[in-house]
Design a protein that fits this description.
The protein has 750 residues and is of the alpha+beta class. Helix content is 26%, strand content 22%. The protein has 18 helices and 30 strands. The strands form 7 sheets. Strands 1-12-13-10-20-17-18-19 form an 8-stranded mixed β-sheet. A hairpin with a 3-residue loop joins strand 7 and strand 8. Helix 1 packs parallel to helix 2 and helix 14 packs parallel to helix 18. The longest helix is centred in the first third of the chain and has 28 residues. The radius of gyration is 27 Å and the shape is globular. The chain starts with a strand and ends in a 17-residue tail after the last helix. About 8% of the residues have low confidence.
Length: 750
């Protein structure tokens, strides 16, 4: 058996290599006769209120976006994208944005994820796909890219046809001289355009003339997905490849000591070798099924974990113990937000109410199981195929694992078969270091594929979270002060602490701060309590639990003050026309606001809940309609109004909001990762239930384009769903559920 020395990437930071500056006139080069254009975005884009989630490590979007557009002589058009397509529709959105200014049908684009390189570090010297950030961070730069390329083609055509440039127009890949009836294709002009310096003062289109931006253009990846031609990491095959299956340690942080039946495993059909890995043992074979059966049969003795405590994943560690540690924390926190004088307001309050909320660990549970393919070439360099959201970061860590320089590692980023924050770097939750170590040990290409059981055991989880609330109400029942304490640890602090310098982890407090409600005296504190388990970003990150906490407690404030929860929100938002408009819009979408309980047409007794959220630069308002069946909440309808400022593709926006709502509802009703005796209890989907078709409600989405700076889309539809559902349950049953999922609570009617 081979013992592969554990690799510990301690202190690894995201790509620190400085961005290669492009001149203000851009970069122009030749590749196989193609026009290749990289464009700087001049000036500063509109500031976002605050970067959130994975984007919290970034500066304001739009300060530097670089991409490469190839217009080939044969008419083919290729875009090398800084972003990874994972079902969110970014490839289509980029094609629409560039095609609009280039005057080229988006359907004629072939979009690929660009390889690592400083030209694609679009976020403060980093490159990532996350934080609902891709479109809003690149929109202006991609427009300018298309416009600059079009102007160069027009200049080239003017010279070729010997006519003034202003006499030319373009239409879907052709330059047209209407006066003479002549035209030239972009492909015919590519080489001549290549010789021209790009201008930095090209005018962009008037949005009123947009042909493709703002339209429901069909997705570019739809046909390949429907016909099975889409390629994911698990589909990658290379010549001479061995297949690896892995048995991980039952307790995180322990290591293999001995294998009792090693000789028997070696003798199994197709088995190539057995290898020790950090926290695991791997079997390589000529097929994955044979490797898996052998790995499952391994009889491994592991080092012993600590007996008790939450400093590590001890034998006694449990979700209940972790929650108890959070709730028992009384140390003063670090102020994350303060307005007015809360202490004075509480002293003069007519009514004071308090509550505490918690939300569980959650798995990503994406359909594509984690995998990676590693291949060393004859010159010692490394090819690595893996699902990822940060190619340059993975390149750096892969290089450290392999003992190479980053330039010797080629990262291939296929389409993601599941997103939700799963594909950032999370140490032991990633299989690619295993693939590298095994390929290096065997001298063969190696594909590592985790079984579903290994994925459920090793997935990095959304942190278990806890928050305390205390509100002061005046004699009129209106809130005059709010004090909030968020206790725990978030993925920003865990994985990007070296970059994100603030003592307050934004991924712990987002959804609790920067609220639009006019409560004059507020204080939000942050108390760090570290988790021993591997924590991760999860769709909408801190908003996924914190908006549930906050919006549920706001309903408690309404009840204590004798207010209708919808009316209270309207009163607290009277100075914010954008939010008032959104609330009114969602009420109209739902046929008018009524809390209930009321009797529906089918005879069921129902109620409604309302919530708002401000995630990732967008604003949402959500109404849920709920009934009870056999002690469980049944959600019949979700109405969601979203204001992302402006949109590129309304069809993609609606689909993203619908899918986010489904995931939000799944987490509200069913999902939780439970630790007992230091181990996760769910091993597969049979013990980790997710939303099924029977529980899926009707989802009604309307888009409000307020003209505010463009916000995100992939995540904002989620955070409003849990509080809207829980608030509806409270209206229906009188039970205020302060701990998710609802499946833990037996519900009954009033």
């Amino acid at each position: 058996m081979n013992d592969l020395t554990p690799f510990s990437p301690s202190g690894v930071r995201p790509a620190s290599e400085p961005v290669r500056n492009l001149s203000r006139r851009g970069f122009l080069g030749v590749a196989a006769g193609a026009l290749i254009l990289g464009v700087n975005l001049p000036g500063e884009a509109a500031a976002q209120a605050r970067a959130e989630g994975a984007a919290a490590v970034a500066p304001k979007p739009g300060t530097r976006v670089a991409a490469f557009l190839e217009i080939r002589p044969d008419g083919g058009v290729r875009l090398l994208s800084p972003f990874v397509e994972g079902g969110q529709g970014i490839n289509t959105g980029l094609a629409q944005t560039i095609g609009e200014e280039l005057d080229l049908d988006p359907a004629r684009f072939a979009v690929e994820c660009a390889p690592p390189g400083p030209d694609y570090a679009v976020v403060n010297g980093l490159r990532m796909t996350g934080g609902s950030f891709s479109t809003r961070s690149s929109f202006e730069a991609m427009r300018r890219l298309g416009a600059t390329a079009r102007e160069m083609l027009l200049r080239a055509a003017a010279a070729r046809l010997a006519v003034p440039q202003h006499s030319l127009t373009t239409d879907n890949g052709r330059v047209i001289h209407a006066a003479s009836g002549r035209s030239l294709s972009y492909g015919d002009l590519a080489q001549a355009a290549l010789a021209l310096p790009p201008r930095d003062d090209v005018a962009l289109k008037d949005p009123k003339t947009f042909r493709w931006i703002g339209r429901p253009v069909a997705r570019l990846d739809m046909r390949d997905k429907a016909t099975g031609r889409a390629t994911y990491a698990i589909d990658i095959r290379v010549e001479g490849m061995l297949h690896a299956a892995v048995q991980h340690a039952p307790h995180l942080g322990t290591e293999p000591q001995a294998i009792a039946n090693e000789a028997d495993i070696r003798a199994m059909p197709g088995v190539h070798t057995i290898h020790r890995l950090p926290g695991a043992v791997a079997v390589l074979a000529d097929s994955w099924w044979r490797a898996r059966k052998a790995a499952e049969a391994l009889q491994v003795t592991w080092t012993e974990p600590a007996s008790e405590g939450i400093a590590t994943v001890s034998k006694g560690f449990s979700s209940a113990a972790m929650l108890a540690a959070l709730t028992a924390t009384t140390e003063p926190g670090i102020p994350a937000e303060q307005e007015g004088d809360p202490d004075a307001a509480f002293k003069g309050a007519a009514t004071v109410i308090e509550a505490a909320y918690d939300a569980p660990y959650l798995a990503h549970a994406q359909l594509e199981p984690p995998s990676a393919v590693a291949r060393f070439t004859a010159d010692g360099s490394l090819d690595l195929w893996l699902p990822n959201q940060m190619p340059e970061l993975f390149q750096q860590i892969a290089a450290k694992t392999a003992g190479l320089s980053p330039e010797q590692v080629r990262i291939h980023s296929p389409m993601l078969g599941g997103f939700f924050g799963r594909h950032f770097y999370y140490g032991p939750a990633n299989p690619f270091p295993q693939a590298i170590l095994l390929a290096k040990a065997t001298g063969r290409p190696v594909r590592v594929l985790w079984s579903r059981e290994e994925e459920f055991a090793m997935d990095a989880v959304r942190p278990l979270s806890f928050a305390r609330f205390k509100a002061a109400l005046g004699p009129d029942g209106m809130p005059v002060a709010l004090r909030t304490t968020a206790i725990g640890e978030g993925p920003i602090g865990r994985w990007f602490g070296a970059v994100f310098k603030s003592p307050v982890d934004s991924s712990v407090v987002e959804g609790l701060d920067k609220k639009p409600y006019a409560i004059p005296n507020r204080r939000l504190d942050y108390v760090k309590v570290a988790h021993p388990v591997t924590i991760a970003f999860w769709r909408s990150v801190g908003h996924s639990m914190n908006d549930y906490f906050y919006e549920s407690f706001l309903d408690e404030i309404a009840a204590a003050g004798g207010k209708d929860p919808f009316d209270l929100r309207m009163a607290l938002l009277k100075q914010s026309p954008r939010h008032i408009t959104l609330l009114r819009t969602v009420a109209e979408l739902a046929g008018g606001w009524r809390r209930g309980p009321f009797t529906a047409e089918d005879g069921t007794r129902r109620a409604r809940g309302v919530s708002m959220a401000s995630p990732f630069g967008s604003e949402t308002a959500t109404i849920a309609e709920v009934s009870l069946k056999d002690g469980e909440a049944r959600v019949h309808d979700l109405w969601i109004a979203i204001d992302p400022g402006s949109v590129v593709n309304p069809a993609i926006v609606k689909r993203q909001v619908e899918s986010a709502a489904a995931l939000g509802l799944s987490s509200t009703l069913l999902e939780q990762v439970v630790y007992e005796n230091g181990q996760r209890q769910a091993k597969n989907f049979d013990s980790y239930p997710i939303l099924d078709r029977e529980r899926m409600p009707r989802v009604h989405v309307t888009i409000v384009e307020s003209g505010a700076p463009m916000g995100g889309i992939g995540e904002p539809g989620l955070p409003g769903v849990p509080p809207a559902v829980v608030n509806a349950v409270a209206a229906l049953t009188g039970q205020r559920v302060r701990s998710l999922p609802l499946a833990k609570t037996r519900l009954s009617g009033v």
